[in-house]
Amino acid sequence: MVELLSRLARAESPSLDPASQRDAFAILAAELEALGYRVRALAGAGAGDHLYARPARRGSGPYQLVVGHLDTVWPLGSTEEMPVRREGDLLYGPGVLDMKGGLVQALFALRTLRELGVEPAVTPVLLVTSDEEIGSRTSLRWLERLAAGADRALILEAAFGSAGALKTARKGTGWFRITVRGRAAHAGVSPEEGLSAILELSHVIQSLFALNDPERGVTVNVGQVDGGLRPNVVAPVAQALVDVRVPTRQAAEEVEAAINALRPTVPGVTIEVDGRMTRPPMEATPRNRLLWDEAVRAAGRLGLPLAQATVGGASDGNYTSMYTATLDGLGPVGEGAHAHHEHVVVPSLPERAALLAELLLAGPLPRP
Questions:
Q1: Domain containing 121: what range?
Q2: Mean pLDDT, consecutive 10-residue segments, the chain of 368 residues?
Q3: Tens of pLDDT along 285-326?
Q4: Does residue 367 lie within any of the structural domains?
Q5: pLDDT at 358
Q6: Is there a single domain that holds both residue 230 and residue 305?
Q7: Which of these three, 224, 253, 279, is where a domain ends?
Q8: HEC string of the chain?
Q9: The pLDDT value given to residue 46
Q10: In this structure, is residue 365 part of a structural domain?
Q11: Within a domain: residue 264?
Q12: Are residues 234 and 310 in the same domain?
């Protein structure tokens, strides 16, 4: 597993360089074809191709969707300052945790079932996307189409924390740009003729932060501001970029409506809102709870402890959960996703692959 993961990590595949992703795609395709899977490239339309794989001899029964992504946040050349290396029980390198380790686990889970001659009652099919880290813009239609017909979706993102918790709920995310337009004037000669966009934006920022609700898990963060021309000019324009995280669809609707309802406090000033809630929340629905219960039983058979967590980050599980039972965080245990100390805990790789194999063997889920 370490050898394959190291090879995948060295095949750098940043989201914003689709051509670079071909080597990682080829490695995955070769491994899957050796397992009797038929691999198809789904055009990314501006992003890299997405990989879809299904058994060459698949029947007509139900299927389960295994979801991962091969793109990483790391630009080409990152392996020079972050070399792929093993230090004791830790394997370091760009993308090993987020999320090529999960892809390796899926390959070994499928290999194990094949070598044991065990065929799941619910056929596993794989979708490995190339643009998850930049919002799944071109892969979303494939995610939705496949999830809509699936018995369940198993997401190969990294586990949460050192305990390796599975992710049974994720917050939904939103991104907004607020642009305030006022009127320029000389700050010393005729300031009264100006309308300060920066002053108005200060009121907007306070209104946005007032939307935070820690008890409900709603976070609204103004993370970047810009505006004005020079210190001696009343600012004609100012802008803020806003990140939103919400635990439920109801909260998403409420926050989005509140942002779109922002109005200026000074006549003559205008406020433009651009953006939306981009990923829906992955809520702890009854069908998702059924899949978590299945994971608890599988972990029990393996003698593995298992915990669950709700996290603020989003994944493709946010999308699949709208259509089918979804369980996230089935990838390896590690630390440093999107950080220079990114690594996986090597002993977790076979343990988590075994857990995934057990889940793949589960029968169709009952309707909640």
A1: 2-170+281-360
A2: 98 96 97 97 90 89 96 97 98 98 98 96 97 94 97 98 95 97 96 97 98 96 97 98 96 97 96 95 95 97 96 94 97 96 98 98 90
A3: 999 999 999 999 999 999 999 999 999 989 999 999 999 999
A4: no
A5: 98
A6: no
A7: 279
A8: CHHHHHHHHHCCCECCCHHHHHHHHHHHHHHHHHCCEEEEEECCECECCEEEEEECCCCCCCEEEEEEECCECCCCCHHHHCCCEEECCEEECCCHHHHHHHHHHHHHHHHHHHHHCCCCCCEEEEEEECCHHHCCCCCHHHHHHHHHCCCEEEECCCCECCCCEEEEEECEEEEEEEEEECECCECCCCHHHCECHHHHHHHHHHHHHCCCECCCCEEEEEEEEEECCCCCECCCEEEEEEEEEECCHHHHHHHHHHHHCCCCCCCCCEEEEEEEEEECCECCCHHHHHHHHHHHHHHHHHCCCCCEEEECCCCCHHHHCCCCEEEECCCCCEECCCCCCCEEECCHHHHHHHHHHHHHCCCCCCCC
A9: 80
A10: no
A11: yes
A12: no
CATH number for the domain spanning 60: value is 3.40.630.10
Q: Is residue 368 in some structural domain?
A: no
Tokens of 315: 């994944």
For the stretch 121-171, pLDDT in tens is: 999 999 999 999 999 999 999 999 999 999 999 999 999 999 999 999 999
Statement to judge: residues 336 and 297 lie in one domain: yes
237, 263, 279 - which closes a domain = 279
Residues 48 and 95 occupy one common structural domain:
yes
